[in-house]
Amino acid sequence: HHRHHHHQSKLAMLGRTKKWLKMCENWSVYYPSEKLYRRVYKGLPLPVRGIVWSKILGTQKLVTDNPGVYEKMKMAGRQWCLDVRQIDLDVNRTFRNHIMFRRRYDVKQQALFNILVAYAMYNSDVGYCQGMSQIAALVLMFLNEEDAFWALASLINGSRYKMHGFFIPGFPKLLRYQDHYNLVLKKLMPKVKKHLDKHEMFPSLYTLKWLMQCFLDRIPFSLTLRFWDIFVLEGESVLIAMCIVVIKLHRSQIVKMNMDELMQFFNDDLCRSFAADDDVAVASLKNTIDDLRRLKLHLPPTTPESELLERP
Amino acid sequence: MSFQGPEEYDYLFKIVLIGDSGVGKSNLLSRFTRNEFNLESKSTIGVEFATRSIVVEGKKLKAQIWDTAGQERFRAITSAYYRGAVGAMLVYDIAKHATFENIDRWLKELRDHADDNIVVLLVGNKTDLRHLRAVMSEDAAEYADRNNLIFIETSALDSTNVEHAFQQCLNEVYKRVADRHFSNVNIGQTTALPTTNLQSTILEKKFCCNS
């Protein structure tokens, strides 16, 4: 029976992969479309995740529009990047439990190092900031080195994601998002907020990796991938919604915890035992995104110019 | 009535772990609070804390230890957490001289943001890397002497001196509290909650709240 079930889900996966490949071949017909959006929320099949992310992030266009730029940045970075030491330290601590990054100085670790030093040259306002290695490693799991570099550039500089403000000195976007999250939490779950405040578990203590790393290392990896499918499609407007979903799905536990337990919960427990399975969490995310959009709370007030990259 | 609740303690002491990225702050913390060492540990971004209680002279001291990001850019966020700290562990890597050279800047960070009477330990970590040693114990000891710091070398990996380092820090804090060195914190205040945001980190608790 179990084998039969396994066989069936494998077939379903193959079917979905085929559908996606068909959409990728006729990308301009399907993107953007209701059907594509619906299918992204169902989760991208592993074999097409890289292709689809790359298409939405506009990686190919960036590669064609900037011939030789990556190579140049990489060479410059190896010579001049002031953050090489920090980058090397962090490559050594990024996704070491993942097969691709397990071996020190192996191919993928080298690629990760290259991307980060190159990016530090490409965008000197950001340079290298801790948190970026996790994101670069994630895209490297699905894309080749040069594509991954431009995917990172798209996430940081692209108008849909604008992660630039999360990483520049002073972290203006982080502070703005934390404030906004606090306001939304107060509106939607005042009791939970009151409990968290009482135990001095303020957003600054637990939302940093949620926002700067888009939940990498803070929720189960399978759910992180599902969230990233949606984030790549929708952009920054789903970040606050996901923060709210994590709290909403655990609120009965949260209100029973003291400060120590809360810290342990946010840092360790959540990525090991999330209260809902991935489909339930994504359904909740969909509803929350809709709710917040209706209430016009999905984004903090407009991004100040100073948080954007002036010229790459 | 039970006095075994996790919230029961006589004093709550806030300790901060600071120092360059990669010197082993997070592993010192996990070694002391959970007796764990993680070779695949991730970089700390922002701040995190963990707690452990120990008994000194019959008093139960709860240490709330704050671990901070080492990358310079994060000081904008982390220095706010020095407020109310009564102890600090200034950590460097004995195998990387640059991390020792930066101790001066970390010390200045503390002087700028922390209480004047804060107990400061200079901690040379990673003594298990004997063959790679780049900072001589004598040099570090002399530096500590000059700057009025307590000096100790540790290895979070093989546990050497970790327990001792934190014990020493907490003992010294306790001594200063007993001598009323921390004039600007409310000793003797009874409160049910641990506090971080502290004009009052040293909380003396008489009995348990969940009785």
From TrEMBL, chain A:
Q: Which InterPro entries match?
A: Rab-GAP-TBC_dom (IPR000195), Rab-GAP_TBC_sf (IPR035969), Rab_GAP_TBC_domain (IPR050302)
Cross-referenced Pfam families, in alphabetical order? RabGAP-TBC (PF00566)
All copies of domain Rab-GAP TBC, residue ranges: 43-235
Q: Which N-terminal residues, if any, form the signal peptide? A: none
Offer an example of a GO molecular function term for this protein: GTPase activator activity
Keyword Transport tagged: no
Q: Which UniProt keywords apply?
A: GTPase activation
Q: What is this protein called?
A: Rab-GAP TBC domain-containing protein
Q: Which organism is it from?
A: Helobdella robusta (Californian leech)
Automatic annotation (TrEMBL), chain B:
Superkingdom of this protein's organism: Eukaryota
How does the protein associate with the membrane?
A: Lipid-anchor
List the GO molecular function terms. GTP binding; GTPase activity
Cellular component terms per the entry's GO annotation: Golgi apparatus; pseudopodium membrane; recycling endosome
PROSITE patterns associated with the record? RAB, RAS, RHO
What single Pfam family name could you report for this chain, choosing any that match? Answer: Ras
Q: What keywords are annotated for this sequence in UniProt?
A: GTP-binding, Lipoprotein, Membrane, Nucleotide-binding, Prenylation
Q: Where in the cell is it found?
A: Cell projection, Pseudopodium membrane; Endomembrane system
InterPro entries recorded: P-loop_NTPase (IPR027417), Rab_GTPases_membrane_traffic (IPR050209), Small_GTP-bd (IPR005225), Small_GTPase (IPR001806)
Output the GO biological process annotations, alphabetical, semicolon-separated: exocytosis
Question: What Gene3D superfamilies does the entry give?
Answer: P-loop containing nucleotide triphosphate hydrolases (3.40.50.300)
Main subcellular localisation: membrane
> What family, per the record?
Belongs to the small GTPase superfamily. Rab family.
What is the annotated role of this protein in its UniProt record? Answer: The small GTPases Rab are key regulators of intracellular membrane trafficking, from the formation of transport vesicles to their fusion with membranes. Rabs cycle between an inactive GDP-bound form and an active GTP-bound form that is able to recruit to membranes different set of downstream effectors directly responsible for vesicle formation, movement, tethering and fusion. RAB25 regulates epithelial cell differentiation, proliferation and survival, thereby playing key roles in tumorigenesis.
Q: How does it assemble?
A: Interacts (GTP-bound form) with RAB11FIP1, RAB11FIP2, RAB11FIP3 and RAB11FIP4. Interacts (via the hypervariable C-terminal region) with ITGB1 (via the cytoplasmic region); the interaction is GTP-dependent. Interacts with ITGAV. Associates with the integrin alpha-V/beta-1 heterodimer. Interacts with VPS33B.
**Record-given protein name:** Ras-related protein Rab-25
Q: Which gene encodes it?
A: 20194689
